[in-house]
Design a protein that fits this description.
It is a single chain. By secondary structure, the chain is an alpha/beta fold. Helices cover about 30% and strands about 25% of the residues. It has 14 helices and 24 strands. The chain has helices spanning about 20-30, 50-60, 85-90, 100-105, 125-135, 165-175, 190-200, 235-245, 260-270, 310-315, 335-340, 370-385, 395, 405-410; strands at about 1-5, 15, 40, 65, 70-75, 85, 110, 135-140, 145-150, 155-160, 180-185, 205, 215, 225-230, 250-255, 275, 280-285, 295, 320-325, 345-350, 350-355, 365, 385-390, 415-419. The protein has a four-stranded mixed beta sheet, covered by helices on one side. It has a four-stranded mixed beta sheet with strand order 2-15-17-16, with helices on one face. The protein has a four-stranded mixed beta sheet with strand order 4-5-3-14, covered by helices on one side. β18, α10 (about 310-315) and β19 form a beta-alpha-beta unit. The chain is elongated and about 65 Å long. Bound molecules: uridine-diphosphate-N-acetylglucosamine (UD1). Uridine-diphosphate-N-acetylglucosamine binds near residues 126, 165 and 299.
Length: about 425
């Protein structure tokens, strides 16, 4: 097992490249099931969630080649097994995205129920109900979803709640359905737009992705193509906070600021100077302590749940008091007891955490619990006096490509060591 050892207190400075988005790459990899030929994906991030996805697809009969320039050839055109097994699905909830594509292309699918995870129960009822709306018959037994439909039929799908993954599953399934599907109350995340662009490139007929209503006219077949995965806005946001929390100045390349407005607005409110151009973002904190900012998570274009833990790390050493309210997941505050061990003044009231900023944090031994919570511990470690040790780094490796290498490039004193 690896751990990260951080000696904090260094203002970050320099320039790094942002990787392709995890939350775009995974659905697009699953979309390869729909194609009749191979996909070439450029800008695929090196993450353990990508490896898990490839293992799952391989187990079902897909083949892939990973090139040294971050491009990946994936051929899932002829699956030999229409089952997503529990032992692979349990480690990554995005595996539920095998369901829509398999059902649409092969008329049947058996997918393990993903179960809950550290941040909440995470049900899949919206996915199942929407696939039934498209004519699928679905049975859940022995921990598996069994879905069948000789031919999916286009329909009106009304999501009672905005769900990113359910929108993606139905978007993919509807591309090969007969007739037109309209998804109402669709999620509008940039990663959904990236998936839709990839599907359109493959030959799908989709309009409205990025809005609350998506129309999909089913086509008979989809083909293999080349696609570049969009930049990871959560990785970018995390590094911007790393600079803000240490009073530093950094530039991020290969980013798209347009998809990060809610995050950038909060950083400006915290006192950062930010300059953006077409593909880069520069944040300058001018050595100042950040100001505390109030946050309420919500679906895109509002503030992302995937950034609340990192802003919590900023608030604990900021000037003032502020609250963060989590509205997407019921248990996404696992970082709080760990941050408190560094001297943070945090109070949890229901789904709101109130931080009274302290002038300095002290390094401590910490335990990573889930992906974004782990990122908040790294950020706090960068700002703290003394040494912070973070165990269970594998959570970070799910979503941050070579995090310690990128932070080192920015001048941080951080090492990955083996126990
Ligand atoms: C969510 C986030 C996404 C983030 C990801 C990983 C939102 C809207 N989604 O996506 O930005 O990248 O977590 O942290 O912010 N739900 C149901 N039934 C379902 C599906 C979902 O009740 O069938 C509920 C969930 O419990 C949750 C909400 O709907 O409260 C949103 O879930 P969903 O968007 O599906 O979660 P993810 O796709 O994992």
């Amino acid at each position: 097992m690896y751990k990260l050892v951080i000696k904090g207190g260094v203002p970050l400075s320099g320039t790094i490249n942002i990787a392709g988005s995890k939350n775009a790459a995974l659905p697009i990899l699953f979309a390869s099931i729909l194609a009749d030929g191979p996909l070439k994906l450029n800008n695929t991030p090196h993450l353990s969630d990508v490896s898990t996805t490839l293992r799952l697809l391989m187990d079902m009969g897909a083949e892939f080649i990973l090139e040294s320039d971050n491009s990946l050839f994936i051929n899932s055109a002829k699956l030999t097994k229409l089952t997503a097994e529990y032992n692979l699905v349990k480690t990554m909830r995005a595996s539920i995205l095998t369901l829509g594509p398999m059902l649409a292309k092969y008329g049947e699918a058996k997918v393990s129920l993903p179960g809950g995870c550290a941040i909440g129960t995470r049900p899949v009822n919206l996915h199942l109900k929407a696939l039934e709306d498209l004519g699928a018959s679905i049975e859940v037994k022995g921990g598996y979803i069994y879905a069948k439909a000789k031919q999916l039929i286009g329909a009106n799908v009304h999501f009672e709640q905005v769900s990113v993954t359910a929108t993606e599953n139905i978007l993919m399934a509807a591309t090969l359905a007969q007739g037109t599907t309209t998804i109402h109350n669709a999620a509008q995340e940039p990663e959904i737009v990236d998936l839709a662009n990839c599907l359109i490139n493959m030959g799908a007929n989709i309009s409205g992705a990025g809005t609350a209503v998506i129309n999909i006219k089913g086509v008979k077949t989809l083909s293999g193509i080349t696609h570049s995965v969009c930049p990871d806005r959560i990785e970018a946001g995390t590094y911007l906070i790393a600079a803000a929390i240490t009073g530093g100045k950094i530039t991020l390349k290969h980013t798209r600021y347009q998809s990060m407005r809610a995050i950038i607005d909060k950083l400006i409110e915290a006192g950062a100077e930010i300059e953006c151009d077409k593909s880069s973002i520069t944040l300058d904190m001018k050595g100042q302590r950040p100001k505390a900012v109030n946050i309420r998570t919500s679906a895109y274009p509002n503030f992302p749940t995937d950034m609340q833990a990192q802003f919590c790390a900023l608030n604990i050493i900021a000037d003032g008091q502020a609250s963060i309210t989590e509205t997407i997941f019921e248990n996404r505050f696992m970082h709080i007891p760990e941050l408190s061990r560094m001297g943070a003044d945090l109070t949890l009231e229901g789904n709101t955490v109130i931080a009274k900023g302290v002038k300095s944090l002290t390094g401590a031994n910490l335990m990573a619990t889930d992906l974004r919570a782990s990122a908040s511990l790294v950020l706090a470690g960068l700002a703290a006096q003394g040494t912070t040790t973070i165990e269970r780094v594998y959570h970070l490796d799910r979503g941050y490509e070579t995090i310690e290498e990128k932070l080192k490039l920015l001048g941080a004193n951080i090492e990955r060591i083996q126990d």
